[in-house]
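Re: that chain you flagged

S.,

Sorry for the slow reply, it's been a week of failed gels. I finally had a moment to sit down with the sequence you sent. For the record, here it is as I used it:
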Amino acid sequence: MIAFTKMEGLGNSYIFINNFETQVPEERLPELAKLVSDKNFGIGSDGLIVVLPPTSPDHDFRFRIFNADGSEAEMCGNGMRCFARFVYDKGLTRKTRFPVQTLAGTIIPELFLGENGEVVAVKVDMGPPQLHSTKIPMTGPEREPVVDAELEAEGHRFVFTAVSMGNPHIVIFVDDVEAVNLAYWGPRLEHHPLFPRRTNVHFVQVQDSSHLLMRTWERGSGITLACGTGACAVLVAAHLKGLANRAATVHLPGGSLHVEWASDGHVYMTGPANYICEGRFLRSMTATLT
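Prediction finished late last night. Pasting the structure tokens below so you have them in one place:
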């Protein structure tokens, strides 16, 4: 039996496993991610997040995230907020601010507690955005920043801004996000040859300098209700283009996030982290993992 918790941040849902206790072999985590994410034969989620002991003494925890297709991502903003609440509520730490080891580097979440001691919101120091084309990464001539770049897909020209928040993002500004056929263009842009590690794709409508409306195709997961690293990339891209202030509310289908590109160069994201359910995988579902 493998204990799990399902959590969501703005509808971006993940299955969490505490590998301090469960100890699923790490080489089997991609397979498990595909299994649990399947809404028909598994639980149904945007992916799997695993709480692990750090390999560095400078960190309190290690964060690994796998998309619904089993591919590993570097980071996830919504997932990190849930991760922070999970380790606090499960008694793995009494700290309300702590360093987490990720493939995107050190990420520091901060918990805000209500009068009853319950976590009411989580702010995440996402670190500085990476703006050089080789850091995103992209093929072709090197440039920094990548603003109003162009690509062609199936005869259609897209103008985009590219940002890495530890994982790759392209941001395309449009007049009406609801008019975009995201299911069609999302996978075609995700797998475009410009992006050797694929990319997350965001279409954005600017409501005003403090409010941005976005829809997301996530690398490896498809259309999702929210993307925390994507919201950060969107704010950075909008500010680089002079379309938004350094702080704004980013509205996603699952809800809203407050994002700030602060004077210290770091991007800070604040939003909710909620529980959905807890349970156990039947061993028959995971027989190949043990």
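What I noticed first: Residues 77-89 form the longest helix (13 residues).

Talk soon,
D.
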